[in-house]
Amino acid sequence: MVIQVKSNSGSNSKAMDGTQQKLEANVLLLGAENVGKSALTVRFLTRRFIGEYGNMESIYSRSDRIDGREISFNIWDSLHPQKSDADVCISEKQLQWADGFILVYSICDRASFNLVRRQVQCIRQGKAKVPGATPIVIVGNKRDLKHRRTVSSEEATLLALSSDCGFFEISVAETYHGVLLVFHELLDLIREARTTKKGPAGLKGIVRSMSAVFGRRRTD
Q: Among 10, 115, 166, 214, which one is most buried in terms of CB atoms within 10 A?
């Protein structure tokens, strides 16, 4: 099962983005150690789940055809800083490089959620002078371990809505579909942000929020 909340946005990006040139999207992954950032990346790239990774930082690329258009994803799987006084800071290089951000926490680790909350603020402050929206998707991972949950989906949903971010709660270990939704939602937000920048000054999208549950439907 995947829980999704979409951020505020304008018209459907498929309708707005009429051109068919190749689109390149630079995606920066952030989050604490052991929350599943690398597992999320590899799941998206290969469909496979690998549970453990070494302490490394990498940039990966993947090309897809989405809605008839070629999309190139460049994914920077960032390394979490070891120093506690640096755990929130995002470098100027990362801010300039990224078109969109995926912030990952574990639903079993409140400290990782608190870090994401601070990273959202850091990104917003760093991008304050850049016109248009900054695409951010928050991901609560390890939904398969919900019996050990310390962060409720309601609290994370509230953070996403109040910060104008997309939100998904997923299990990277259990489903590829949820991972795919995360990256496709961020792509939609990147498209919308670029379209807004090209539009008339002061143009804002229609505010909307949506909560949906994907997977097996439950009956009362």
A: 166
Q: How far, in Å, are 88, 124, 125 from residue 129 at the CA level?
A: 19, 9, 8
Q: Are strands 166-169 and 136-141 parallel, antiparallel or unpaired?
A: parallel
Indicate whether 34 pLDDT > 50. Answer: yes
Q: Residues 214, 178: contact at Cβ < 8 Å?
A: yes
> In one letter, which amino acid is 180?
L
* CA–CA separation, 179 and 182 (whole Å): 5
CB 49 within 8 A of CB 173: yes
Report pLDDT for 88.
65
Strands 23-31 and 58-66: unpaired
**pLDDT tens digits, residue range 139-182?**
999 999 999 999 999 999 999 999 999 999 999 999 999 999 99
DSSP helix/strand/coil, 73 = strand
Angle between helix axes 110-126 and 153-162 (nearest 10 degrees) is: 10
What is the helix (H) or strand (E) element at residue 106, kind and residue range?
A: strand 100-106
